[in-house]
Amino acid sequence: MKQNNRPSSHDQLPHNMRLSSSQKQTLSAAQRLDQGATSSSYAKAGVDVALGNRLKSGIGAIVCPTHGTEVLGGIGGFGGLFRPDFKGRKIKDPVLVSSVDGVGTKLKIAFETNRHDTIGADLVNHCINDIAVTGARPLFFLDYIAAEKLDPKILRQIISGMARACKAARCALIGGETAQMPGLYHPGEYDLAGTIVGVVDRKQLLDGSRVKVGDALIAFPSNGLHTNGYTLARDVLFKKMKLKLSSKPAGLLTTLEKELLKIHRCYLPEFEKIMALGATKLHAAAHITGGGLIDNLSRILPSHCDAHIDSEAWQIPSIFKILCQSGRVDPLEMYRVFNMGIGMVFVVSAKDAPTIAKKLRGKIIGKIIKGSGEVQLDPSKELKRLKAED
Fold it and tell me: Which superfamily does 216-389 belong to?
């Protein structure tokens, strides 16, 4: 059963406080119910409304630092209020861009390690990247957290992570929803999703129409798996290889716990840097998430263009080599399930590519050729060798 839009707090009185009949008459309906929360029929059934309100009462202090002058009102209403200052943002023809996403089975790693301070940042950064590829900058973010039972420590860790990521990107965290759903989720587990809204001036909208044959592809490194491929990764590492989160397999410089909880990188700084070089320098961009290079680059290609990838142009991180070899995964499939060390790809003119790659610390990994909107890629020789050795 869903709880009120967060946070909706009521003054709580200690349950052992004895009140006279006259005092009781002055209490609100909510206060009288909260006094008897432990005997609530709804609480006995599995949904403690009073607990939910107490847990959410301190959230405002966490999210308010993400608010600027465009946020109206406080937290706790039926909807978040945001009055965008398009003039101040120097946007003449605003186009709103929205996206919704989750973090998939990376949540399982958070559950098993009892670390919940990074998963919220994963969610926010993933959503920011998804709208950034259209040229948009984030305006505000809303989250959804559902669990078998709300836990105050876990809830605050998740929201603190989201707030940090929002503040870093100048994105307002203006509201959210928490839901207690006994019987639907396993004890100690939860689901997490978020919605983001951003804005771009229509003349700067990136929709793939600027991409042309001869353009270059500049890649920016990922910070590990980010938020995709965890179902296969967990199957290989923990079922097939029988490893533990504390394990440090050959080739990794850290434990699996630290490797798998690395925060999804936010590429907003790279977008801001290339815009500073010129509003038309960036022809298109692709966020490399589920579907990898193969399925995500094709989303920004015109029907007469293909993207040709040189898989020898970058060093594949060790975690992906381990998954490929030990999991006996087809090397080509690796480029569809995982990001393979690349989290974002920019399409720019071949003439500008060397300068942009140097200034933004990216790497040229391919080019746009004549085609039909597909990605041309052959797995790296190293992956093929690892597969052959298995």
Answer: PurM-like C-terminal domain (3.90.650.10)
Size of the chain in residues: 390
The residue to which tokens 């349950």 are assigned: 15
Kindly state the DSSP code that residue 27 receives in the 8-state scheme.
S
Burial class (CB in 10 A: 0-12, 13-18, 19+), 84: middle
Q: How far is CA 67 from the centre of its chain?
A: 20
CA-wise closest residue to 147 among 100, 118, 107, 99: 107
Task: Quote the pTM value.
Answer: 0.90
Q: What is the DSSP string of 308-376?
A: EE-TTSSPPPHHHHHHHHHTT--HHHHHHHS-TTEEEEEEE-TTTHHHHHHHHT-EEEEEEEESSS-EE
Q: Residue 306 to residues 216, 260, 312, 313, 367: CA-CA distances in angstroms? A: 12, 32, 18, 18, 9
The dihedral formed by the CA atoms of 286, 288, 290 and 291, expressed in degrees to the nearest 10: 70
Residues 33 and 315: their CA atoms lie apart, in Å, by 61
Q: How far is residue 53 from each of residues 24, 41, 173, measured CA to CA in Å?
A: 21, 17, 19
pLDDT tens per residue, range 282-335: 999 999 999 999 999 999 999 999 999 999 999 999 999 999 999 999 999 999
Residue 389's H or E segment, with its range, is helix 381-389
| Contact present, 308 and 376 (Cβ < 8 Å) | yes
Tokens of 160: 């603190």
**pLDDT tens-digit map of 19-41:** 455 455 578 887 777 776 556 78
Q: If DSSP codes are grouped into helix, strand and coil, which group holds residue 115?
A: coil
Instruction: Please name the fold of domain 46-204.
Output: 60s Ribosomal Protein L30; Chain: A; (3.30.1330)
For residue 96, give the 3-state DSSP assignment: strand
